[in-house]
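BUG: 3D viewer hangs when loading the predicted structure for this chain

Environment: internal workstation, default settings.
Expected: structure renders.
Actual: progress bar stalls at 90%.

Input used:
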Amino acid sequence: MKLNITLPCYNEEKILKKNILTLFNFLNKNIVDDDWQIIIADNNSIDNTKEVTKELEEKFRQIKYLFVPQKGKGVAIKHGWQKYEADIYIFMDADLATDLEALPKLITAIKEEHYDIAVGSRFHKLSNVKRGIIRKIISYSYRVVKKILVRSSVSDIPCGFKAVNREIIKKILPQIKNKEWFFDSELVILAENQNYKIKEIPVKWEDLREKTDKSRVRVISLGFDYFNNILKLRKRLQKKI
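C-alpha coordinates produced before the viewer hung:
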Protein backbone atom coordinates (compact mmCIF):
# COMPACT_ATOMS: atom_id res chain seq x y z
CA MET A 1 0.00 0.00 0.00
CA LYS A 2 1.03 3.59 -0.59
CA LEU A 3 1.29 5.86 2.46
CA ASN A 4 1.22 9.64 2.29
CA ILE A 5 2.68 11.02 5.54
CA THR A 6 2.29 14.79 5.63
CA LEU A 7 3.93 17.08 8.19
CA PRO A 8 2.58 20.66 8.09
CA CYS A 9 5.41 23.07 8.92
CA TYR A 10 5.85 26.74 9.66
CA ASN A 11 9.28 28.01 10.71
CA GLU A 12 10.47 24.65 12.02
CA GLU A 13 14.17 24.83 11.07
CA LYS A 14 15.29 24.23 14.68
CA ILE A 15 13.70 20.79 14.93
CA LEU A 16 12.96 19.75 11.36
CA LYS A 17 16.10 17.88 10.28
CA LYS A 18 16.32 15.84 13.46
CA ASN A 19 12.61 14.99 13.42
CA ILE A 20 12.44 14.12 9.73
CA LEU A 21 15.38 11.76 10.15
CA THR A 22 13.79 10.27 13.26
CA LEU A 23 10.60 9.59 11.30
CA PHE A 24 12.53 8.36 8.25
CA ASN A 25 14.55 5.87 10.29
CA PHE A 26 11.46 4.65 12.13
CA LEU A 27 9.63 4.02 8.87
CA ASN A 28 12.63 2.25 7.35
CA LYS A 29 12.78 -0.09 10.31
CA ASN A 30 9.11 -0.63 11.12
CA ILE A 31 7.02 0.01 7.98
CA VAL A 32 8.71 -2.32 5.50
CA ASP A 33 5.73 -3.72 3.59
CA ASP A 34 4.35 -0.40 2.35
CA ASP A 35 5.54 2.26 -0.09
CA TRP A 36 5.68 5.46 1.96
CA GLN A 37 6.53 9.10 1.38
CA ILE A 38 7.18 11.91 3.86
CA ILE A 39 5.75 15.19 2.60
CA ILE A 40 6.95 18.36 4.30
CA ALA A 41 4.20 20.89 3.59
CA ASP A 42 5.94 24.22 4.13
CA ASN A 43 3.32 26.77 5.14
CA ASN A 44 5.19 29.78 3.70
CA SER A 45 7.96 29.70 6.32
CA ILE A 46 10.33 32.65 6.60
CA ASP A 47 13.21 30.70 8.17
CA ASN A 48 15.32 27.90 6.64
CA THR A 49 12.60 25.24 6.62
CA LYS A 50 12.86 24.98 2.83
CA GLU A 51 16.65 24.65 2.78
CA VAL A 52 16.66 22.02 5.53
CA THR A 53 14.04 19.92 3.75
CA LYS A 54 15.57 20.33 0.28
CA GLU A 55 18.88 19.01 1.61
CA LEU A 56 17.15 15.85 2.82
CA GLU A 57 15.02 15.58 -0.33
CA GLU A 58 18.19 15.34 -2.41
CA LYS A 59 19.47 12.45 -0.28
CA PHE A 60 16.30 10.40 0.14
CA ARG A 61 13.72 9.73 -2.58
CA GLN A 62 10.96 9.19 0.01
CA ILE A 63 11.20 12.76 1.33
CA LYS A 64 9.30 15.43 -0.59
CA TYR A 65 9.26 19.20 -0.13
CA LEU A 66 6.00 21.00 -0.91
CA PHE A 67 5.70 24.78 -0.75
CA VAL A 68 2.24 25.96 0.31
CA PRO A 69 1.91 29.75 -0.15
CA GLN A 70 -1.33 30.11 1.83
CA LYS A 71 -1.11 30.30 5.61
CA GLY A 72 -2.91 27.76 7.78
CA LYS A 73 -2.20 24.30 9.15
CA GLY A 74 -5.31 22.93 7.47
CA VAL A 75 -4.28 24.31 4.09
CA ALA A 76 -0.86 22.66 4.43
CA ILE A 77 -2.33 19.26 5.34
CA LYS A 78 -4.86 19.42 2.51
CA HIS A 79 -2.22 20.34 -0.08
CA GLY A 80 0.09 17.60 1.15
CA TRP A 81 -2.63 14.97 0.95
CA GLN A 82 -3.86 16.09 -2.47
CA LYS A 83 -0.43 16.40 -4.06
CA TYR A 84 0.63 12.76 -3.67
CA GLU A 85 -1.92 10.01 -4.22
CA ALA A 86 -1.95 7.13 -1.75
CA ASP A 87 -4.07 4.42 -0.15
CA ILE A 88 -3.64 5.74 3.37
CA TYR A 89 -3.17 9.41 4.23
CA ILE A 90 -1.50 10.36 7.51
CA PHE A 91 -0.60 13.61 9.16
CA MET A 92 1.37 14.36 12.29
CA ASP A 93 2.70 17.50 13.92
CA ALA A 94 6.30 18.36 13.07
CA ASP A 95 7.39 18.39 16.71
CA LEU A 96 6.61 14.64 16.94
CA ALA A 97 4.85 15.19 20.25
CA THR A 98 3.15 11.85 19.63
CA ASP A 99 5.57 8.96 20.04
CA LEU A 100 6.00 7.10 16.75
CA GLU A 101 5.42 3.73 18.38
CA ALA A 102 1.70 4.36 17.78
CA LEU A 103 2.14 4.78 14.01
CA PRO A 104 1.92 1.07 13.07
CA LYS A 105 -1.36 0.81 15.00
CA LEU A 106 -2.67 3.87 13.18
CA ILE A 107 -1.87 2.24 9.84
CA THR A 108 -3.24 -1.17 10.85
CA ALA A 109 -6.59 0.38 11.81
CA ILE A 110 -7.05 1.55 8.20
CA LYS A 111 -5.21 -1.20 6.33
CA GLU A 112 -6.34 -4.35 8.13
CA GLU A 113 -9.25 -3.39 10.39
CA HIS A 114 -10.93 -1.31 7.66
CA TYR A 115 -11.64 1.80 9.67
CA ASP A 116 -12.10 5.01 7.68
CA ILE A 117 -10.21 7.18 10.19
CA ALA A 118 -7.72 6.40 12.95
CA VAL A 119 -7.11 9.05 15.60
CA GLY A 120 -4.41 9.26 18.24
CA SER A 121 -6.18 9.78 21.55
CA ARG A 122 -4.55 11.32 24.60
CA PHE A 123 -7.67 10.41 26.58
CA HIS A 124 -7.45 6.69 25.86
CA LYS A 125 -7.08 4.71 29.08
CA LEU A 126 -3.79 3.22 27.83
CA SER A 127 -2.28 6.57 26.81
CA ASN A 128 0.65 8.21 28.60
CA VAL A 129 0.45 11.99 28.42
CA LYS A 130 2.70 14.76 29.75
CA ARG A 131 1.41 18.33 29.46
CA GLY A 132 1.06 21.50 31.49
CA ILE A 133 -1.91 22.41 33.65
CA ILE A 134 -3.25 25.07 31.25
CA ARG A 135 -3.33 22.61 28.36
CA LYS A 136 -4.99 20.02 30.59
CA ILE A 137 -7.76 22.42 31.59
CA ILE A 138 -8.39 23.58 28.02
CA SER A 139 -8.30 20.04 26.63
CA TYR A 140 -10.82 18.73 29.13
CA SER A 141 -13.06 21.79 28.66
CA TYR A 142 -12.94 21.40 24.91
CA ARG A 143 -13.78 17.72 25.23
CA VAL A 144 -16.90 18.49 27.27
CA VAL A 145 -18.06 21.33 25.00
CA LYS A 146 -17.48 19.24 21.89
CA LYS A 147 -19.51 16.35 23.31
CA ILE A 148 -22.42 18.62 24.24
CA LEU A 149 -22.54 20.78 21.11
CA VAL A 150 -21.81 18.28 18.32
CA ARG A 151 -22.41 15.03 20.21
CA SER A 152 -19.11 13.53 19.16
CA SER A 153 -18.10 10.30 20.86
CA VAL A 154 -14.46 10.63 19.75
CA SER A 155 -12.56 11.60 22.89
CA ASP A 156 -9.64 13.54 21.37
CA ILE A 157 -10.39 15.09 18.01
CA PRO A 158 -7.65 17.81 18.10
CA CYS A 159 -4.70 15.40 18.50
CA GLY A 160 -2.24 15.99 15.65
CA PHE A 161 -1.84 12.33 14.75
CA LYS A 162 -4.39 10.93 12.30
CA ALA A 163 -4.81 8.57 9.36
CA VAL A 164 -7.62 8.38 6.80
CA ASN A 165 -8.49 6.27 3.78
CA ARG A 166 -9.22 7.28 0.19
CA GLU A 167 -12.95 7.49 0.82
CA ILE A 168 -12.42 10.24 3.39
CA ILE A 169 -10.16 12.14 0.99
CA LYS A 170 -12.80 11.88 -1.71
CA LYS A 171 -15.96 12.56 0.30
CA ILE A 172 -15.06 14.47 3.48
CA LEU A 173 -12.03 16.58 2.51
CA PRO A 174 -14.04 18.77 0.07
CA GLN A 175 -16.55 19.55 2.84
CA ILE A 176 -14.00 21.00 5.27
CA LYS A 177 -14.11 24.79 5.49
CA ASN A 178 -11.54 25.54 8.20
CA LYS A 179 -8.01 26.27 7.01
CA GLU A 180 -6.29 26.53 10.37
CA TRP A 181 -5.92 24.43 13.55
CA PHE A 182 -9.55 23.26 13.57
CA PHE A 183 -9.16 21.56 10.17
CA ASP A 184 -8.65 17.99 11.40
CA SER A 185 -11.21 18.36 14.18
CA GLU A 186 -13.77 19.34 11.56
CA LEU A 187 -12.71 16.35 9.48
CA VAL A 188 -13.42 13.93 12.33
CA ILE A 189 -16.73 15.54 13.33
CA LEU A 190 -18.03 15.60 9.75
CA ALA A 191 -16.99 11.98 9.20
CA GLU A 192 -18.58 10.84 12.45
CA ASN A 193 -21.76 12.74 11.58
CA GLN A 194 -21.89 10.79 8.30
CA ASN A 195 -21.39 7.42 9.99
CA TYR A 196 -17.83 6.67 8.92
CA LYS A 197 -15.91 4.23 11.12
CA ILE A 198 -13.40 5.86 13.47
CA LYS A 199 -10.90 4.16 15.77
CA GLU A 200 -9.02 5.80 18.63
CA ILE A 201 -5.42 4.71 19.22
CA PRO A 202 -3.61 5.02 22.58
CA VAL A 203 -0.50 7.20 22.40
CA LYS A 204 2.47 8.45 24.32
CA TRP A 205 2.34 12.23 24.03
CA GLU A 206 4.52 14.97 25.47
CA ASP A 207 4.06 18.72 25.18
CA LEU A 208 7.51 19.51 23.82
CA ARG A 209 6.62 23.07 22.82
CA GLU A 210 5.82 24.08 26.37
CA LYS A 211 9.35 23.27 27.49
CA THR A 212 11.23 25.07 24.76
CA ASP A 213 9.13 27.69 23.02
CA LYS A 214 6.01 28.81 24.86
CA SER A 215 5.25 31.62 22.43
CA ARG A 216 4.78 29.24 19.50
CA VAL A 217 1.31 28.13 20.45
CA ARG A 218 -0.95 30.70 22.09
CA VAL A 219 -2.75 28.10 24.12
CA ILE A 220 -5.58 30.20 25.56
CA SER A 221 -6.44 32.08 22.36
CA LEU A 222 -6.25 28.80 20.44
CA GLY A 223 -8.71 27.32 22.91
CA PHE A 224 -11.21 30.11 22.30
CA ASP A 225 -10.74 29.64 18.56
CA TYR A 226 -11.62 25.97 18.89
CA PHE A 227 -14.80 26.78 20.83
CA ASN A 228 -15.87 29.34 18.22
CA ASN A 229 -15.33 26.84 15.42
CA ILE A 230 -17.30 24.17 17.27
CA LEU A 231 -20.23 26.60 17.46
CA LYS A 232 -19.99 27.40 13.74
CA LEU A 233 -19.85 23.72 12.83
CA ARG A 234 -22.83 22.97 15.08
CA LYS A 235 -24.91 25.51 13.15
CA ARG A 236 -23.87 23.89 9.85
CA LEU A 237 -24.83 20.44 11.08
CA GLN A 238 -28.18 21.68 12.41
CA LYS A 239 -29.06 23.13 9.00
CA LYS A 240 -28.66 19.69 7.44
CA ILE A 241 -31.11 18.08 9.85
